Amino acid sequence: MKFSALRSALLSLLTGATVFAPAGANAMFKMVTPPPAVKAIFAANPTVMQGIKFFEGPGNLTGVFVSLGDGSRPSIMYVTPDGKTTIAGQAIDIKSKRNLTAEAAVQFAPQSTLGKTGAEIIKATPLLAGASTSSNDDPVPTEAATPDALSHLNFVETGTGDRVIYVFVDALCMHCKTAYDDIRAWQKKGGKARVRWVPISLGSDKASTLAAYALGGKGELALQGMFRQQADGKATERLAKGAVALETNMAFSQDTIPMTATPTFVYVDGGKVVAKAGYAGLISMSSPTQR
After folding, report:
1. Are 153 and 278 in the same domain?
2. Do residues 166 and 259 touch, judged by C-beta distance below 8 A?
3. Helix pair angle (174-188, 219-227), 10° resolution
4. 152 assigned to some structural domain
5. Are 210 and 175 in contact (CB under 8 A)?
6. What is the DSSP letter of 167?
7. Number of domains making up the chain
8. Longest Cα separation, the chain
C-alpha cells in the first residue's frame, strides 16, 4: 500500500467505517509487535509519521495509533495482517456495545481532542437524555442560514419530542443509512427528538434520481426505499414532483450551507443555525440545546 493512500486513510475518529469486534474485547489495549507487512508500511516513511503505537485490534487486525508529522490530528486505524487494507473508523464490541476506538483514543491520547471526543462517545448514552457536550469537530455556526430557511426544506420527519434535528443524507452514503437505522431504533425505544431527513445528492446522477423519487413519494416508506436504492425510472410524474423538491434542498446544501459530506446534522442552537458533518454514532444527536 503506497503511503499516499495510507495518509488519505488517516480520518478522524468521527468519520469512516465501522468494524464490529468479537464479543468480550478488553478495555485496555495490549501493545504488540505488528506483522512484518504492517510494520513495513510505516518503516518506509519514518520522517513523516511519529508517535506510532501498535496495539491489539479486534479479530486479526492490528490497531495503530499515529499522529501526522507535525504532531497534529492523532488518528486510530486498523490494518489487516497482509498490510494491504486499512480501516479508519470505529470498532464496536457487539456484545457490550462498547466503542473500542473511543477507548483506545482515551488510552493513547487522553489530552487531545481525539481522546476527549472518545471520552464523550463513551458517555453517549446518558448524554442522549438531553445534556450538551462538544465533540471532535464542534458544530459550525452558519451565518447564511436562518431558522426560517430550514422550515422551507423538503424532508421526511420521524420521531417526536421538542428537539428538531435536520439530517442531510445522500442515497448512496452508507453512513447515512447507518445513521438512519441507529436513530430510528433509538426513537422506537423512546428516544425523544424530531429528526427531519433531508435527501440531497453529492453529485451522482443515481443519488439525484433516488432522492427525487423519495421526495416525490409519501412519508417514511419513500425514504426507506431511497436507502434501499429503489426507484422506478418510468414514474415520471413522481420524479418530476420530487425533482422540484430536491432543487430546494440542493440550493440550501450548495449555497446556504455548502456541504461536501453526508450525513450532515443541522439544528438551531442558541438562536443560530449550526452544522456538523459526519456520523459518530448516537453522540451526533447529543449536542442540540434547542427545546
Report:
1. yes
2. no
3. 140
4. yes
5. no
6. E
7. 2
8. 61
